[in-house]
Design a protein that fits this description.
342 residues, 2 domains, two-stranded antiparallel ribbon
């Protein structure tokens, strides 16, 4: 990267952060109020709404319906962000735009001007590999912008760059405020480009939903082929057993906001976290291994309305909603009997 291109990239990220975060313009703040604010959501709330929709058989329509009242605000915010990108990288300079995201992920954009706003002097995602929530927040926003009628072609491209930056930073884990972060070898960068820039939105969505810290490696998500999407062009696709369980429970809960003793939609947790979850209302969701494990599990008992659920005990779940069909309860029971495969 030439010195001029490097400076252009620094200027872009400095301007982007300044206008959208540190010194928000009135237009940006108004669009945030009209999108997130109108929906009663913060940045992480939108991420949660996307995850809930993704685990539903009605995705992405369910997400689009949830954000419909904020659609105008999401379009406006997307247009403002795209205007900042284009002001530094005019149309026809997509290579430079992509490089800006790659360098962001590498943690090589040392910029002392940032001291005005923050303690850190490198343009990179804040936090550690387990807390890079910013990539997930931006992904959810981009999907909201597209589903709200934003510039789909432009934002689909940005979505790939966001995912690529996430993958690069996950792999390089650059040191905070180190002016000599090495970046990523060219050969490996080429491999990550092929993986993420060649992926469709279904693969990228699945990655952001199921991996909440570092980006997945090739071993984690081996094939960018609409992972986790229930239907494609109206045809049923094979999905993972755990995702099917999530779909059943999200469909059962509908658009409600279950609390479950503060655990809320616990079934949308990553598989390992779900399996490690403690009791809900004092009842263990998944029974210990042994005969009839599924039938003994609190999750199945709650859906069937069998003790300690039902008359004289806890209400049958889902509360104030139609009961889950016997076929779907049986699927969950069989899934538990098979030791809850992911």
């Amino acid at each position: 990267m030439s010195a001029e291109s490097h400076q252009t990239t620094l200027d872009f990220w400095f301007d982007f952060d300044n206008q959208t975060l540190y010194q928000r313009t009135p237009e940006v703040q108004a669009s945030i109020d009209a999108s997130y604010g109108r929906l009663g959501l913060d940045l992480d709330g939108l991420v949660d709404e996307f995850r809930t929709s993704f685990a539903s058989s009605a995705h992405p329509e369910r997400f689009a319906e949830r954000i419909a009242d904020g659609a105008e605000g999401f379009r406006a915010l997307a247009d403002l962000q795209m205007a900042i990108i284009r002001s530094h990288f005019p149309d026809g300079t997509n290579g430079a735009r992509q490089t800006a995201f790659e360098k962001f992920g590498e943690g090589v954009l040392y910029d002392e001007r940032r001291i005005v706003f923050t303690d850190h002097v490198i343009h990179m995602m804040d936090g550690s590999p387990t807390t890079w929530v910013g990539y997930h927040r931006w992904h959810a926003f981009v999907r909201a912008a597209i589903l709200s009628g934003g510039d789909a072609a432009s934002w689909q491209e940005v979505l790939g760059w966001i995912a690529l930056a996430w993958a690069i930073q996950s792999e390089t884990d650059p040191m905070v405020d180190n002016p000599s972060n090495p970046g990523i070898p060219a050969g490996r960068l080429g491999e990550l480009r092929a993986r993420w820039l060649g992926a469709d939105e279904g693969f990228i969505d699945a990655a952001f939903v199921h991996f909440r810290g570092p980006a997945p490696t090739e071993a984690d998500l081996p094939s960018p082929a609409r992972a986790g999407i229930a239907t494609v062009a109206g045809e049923e696709q094979e999905i993972s057993p755990y995702l099917r369980v999530q779909q059943i429970l999200n469909d059962a809960a509908g658009t409600g906001r279950p609390n479950h003793g503060g655990k809320r939609r616990f079934w949308n947790l990553p598989h390992a976290e779900f399996m490690a979850l403690g009791p809900v209302y004092g009842v263990q969701l998944i029974a210990p291994p042994g005969p009839d494990r599924g039938a003994r599990s609190g999750l199945v008992l709650a859906l069937k309305g069998e003790p300690p659920f039902g008359p004289g005990g806890f209400p049958r779940m889902p509360l104030n909603r139609p009961p889950v069909t016997p076929e779907n309860i049986q699927f969950i029971q069989d899934w538990i009997d098979c030791d809850c495969p992911e």
